[in-house]
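Lay summary. Proteins are chains of building blocks that fold into shapes, and those shapes determine what they do. In this project we predict the shape from the chain. Here is one chain we studied, written as its sequence of building blocks.
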Amino acid sequence: MGSAAFFVPQSGGACDKCGFFLLEYIHYQAIIGKKKRGVFVMLNETGLVLEGGGMRGVYTAGVLEYFMEQDLYFPYIIGVSAGACNAASYISGQKGRNKTVNVDLVSDPRYISWRNYFRNRQFFGMDFIFDEVPNKLVPYDYDKFHNSQSEFVIGTTDCHTGEPVYFNREGYGQDVLQVLKASSSLPFIAPEIDYNSRKLLDGGISDPIPLKKAQQDGFQKNIVILTRNKGYQKKPSKFHFLVRRKYPAYTGLQKAMENRYRQYNQTLGYLAEEEQKGTTLVIQPSEPLEVGRMERNPAKLEHLYNQGYSDAKKQFGRIQSFIG
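And here is the predicted shape, written in a compact code that computers can read:
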């Protein structure tokens, strides 16, 4: 951040002068950014909150790609499911990686296909996505991720209680991919993940837009990236009997799934209130979505990715003003 001598009083200075410089130092640390190792790190109290949404998450990937191009990073990032997965490549600073993984590879049947489902009861090839892709096909930069100063929180759902379980860097340590896998494991489509003596599934079940968690962690000012259009409201599911049949031992999960639409819509209401207060800025698709949770059409996915990039670019001045 430059020479620390600027903030330290010269020998013989008065105590009140020392206190003045100390306050200036704290103020400097809290509200402005600096260049560090060629990356602009925002040293303010703004968090970044990322919704999931399966393949709709390519919208978030486009937004984050533009952020990377502008060297815009945040001290606190929280996401669930696809939002958390896209955040991982953003934190490691790997430009273009999210597009390669989520658009270019989607035609590979090992990624997403009925073949996967009939063979392994997994529509998404979870081992392929969370092992072969990051470790062989599109190498993930673990060193840059672990050296990043950003706190990264991943939301999951406890199958027994139906409650959200969050993991920060201290909680997952070197197991970030395993926790990302848990956060992205959708009911019916992927098996539960055993981690830390818990059975875990998709984080979007219990806390689809984890804004309140960011606030609880001390970030009262947040940018939230959604993967649904403005005005969207989730409808009640008509298939609760299937949840009860598939997961008879997980009564907490059953309740969470049944209540999911209500919680999602209530969260949207809370989000709107926070926007009115000026404490939250929302980025979401500006055009009607043509991409579903399990979309396999590369052209549609690329269009949504480009839409995210374009929306971020159009709103960047507003984003900068919000950050301050």
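What the prediction tells us: The beta strands are 34-36, 39-41, 46-50, 76-80, 151-158, 164-167, 193-195, 198-202, 221-225, 280-283.
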